[in-house]
Amino acid sequence: MVDGGKNEEQTxxxxxxxxxxxxxxxxxPGHTHEEGTAEHPVDVASGVASGFIGDPTLDRENGREPxxxxxxxxxxxxxxxxxxxxxxxxxxxxxxxxxxxxxxxNPKPTEGTVKLAEELMSIATPxxxxxxxxxxxxxxxxxEDVDHAGIQRRGEAFRRADQDEEPEQVPEPKNPRQRRRKxxxxxxxxxxxxxxxxxGSSTARGAIRMAKAVTKDFGFxxxxxxxxxxxxxETKSEDAVHRCLQxxxxxxxxxxxxxxxDSEFPILRAGDFVKCMDRCGxxxxxxxxxxxxxxxxxxxxxxxxxxxxxxxxDLFNTNLPLSRCLPIYIHGxxxxxxxxxxxxxxxxxxxxxxxxxxxxxNIHGNLSEKKYFVNxxxxxxxxxxxxxxxxxxxxxxxxxxxxxxxxxxxxxxREAYLSGVTLEDGFDISQDD
Length: 433
Known about the structure:
two-stranded antiparallel ribbon; five-stranded mixed β-sheet
């Protein structure tokens, strides 16, 4: 397994800037939010809860007096944000000191420097924890339940997303590696709902309630996903949402291998995942940027740095181009599924990504030509890729079945490493773990 460095606290693979994720829903022109109180009661009959103070114009149209902004709440939120900025600066300073005490910056750490690094780590941990707690408080202040005016604003966003407009003609890139294949029959509303649920900004039950409220006020128009979701059961919300959004799945072929006691055990080969990402133009899931040429440069820079630490690594004894060898991690963990029964989940992920939760939101997506980040930000559905899932009844007694799966993983990745994965334009990319 490739190790990007000895220091697990390092938040960048190179010297670079930070970034953070953006908003899922588009901004609707003419509608702005102000901070206010959440004193409106829950309307059980309509399924609408109070929260955002609402749009004054829409409130007057509906015969309601627009609520007054809560100045104290706004003041507290601004103060929290200033304190978060101070915590972020302190956390970066302490993290930088820890990095300087450890390898490779300090080639020969002594017992004293190791102890000092541990003490600094004990300082950095509560700082990071306080930052996360304050971020949660700010989110609660900004993202409470949506009231009637908020429903109308989001309905307007859905309606704008699905209206039949002539698509903007974007010239096809000359380089086939940059070509993004467009999906067929997928509305923007479905993508917005899937993004909300996938990123955790909305629960499955919340998505169903929102769909019901929007459909009640505006209808579902040409969006079948909104119509189906509005009829979903709130008591079985997870099943309903996944059933409605299953057409957004990545079409990765399911392979079968022979293991102990089962001749057709299903797996998802890493090479098939890469081919699908190439076909759909999802290189940002692997490199943190959609630019494949930039990804090649990341790979080359990474292996050049890795060679300084481990000059005898097997890759450096071959003629494989470093820019076409993708470093990945393999991770296995036992979780729970139906009725809390144990299940082993094995997945792989790229070394590269969009940074960590401490990245600066002011420069989101600003990856320069020489800067890139670790893969610790974003939802796991889009950054970790399942290889195999095995219930414990298959490996609980002797473990031979699990060992067989690991053997197939090693064989599959070795083949990808030596032979490469052929992309649609004939370009080969290898994986190295």
